[in-house]
Amino acid sequence: xxxxxxxxxxxxxxxxxxxxxxxxxxxxxxxxxxxxxxxxxxxxxxxxxxxxxxxxxxxxxxxxxxxxxxxxxxxxxxxxxxxxxxxxxxx
Length: 91
Hints:
about 90 residues, elongated, mainly alpha
């Protein structure tokens, strides 16, 4: 006979297993995205990467901001680009 506590425990374990599987899948996806993110500036913005303090993430962010549609740019600027430039300046 299955008690209420057994049912709660099995449900909890099942949920934890689902969350663990999801975490592992997201970790694999993140590694794939990071690899592609590093490849983009290496193939398209080598001069930018040669600048001191500019890593692949900052370069990719700046490439996205520079390639944005100029007719739709926010007059306040790009938060991502500002953050990338701030990071480069700190380095």
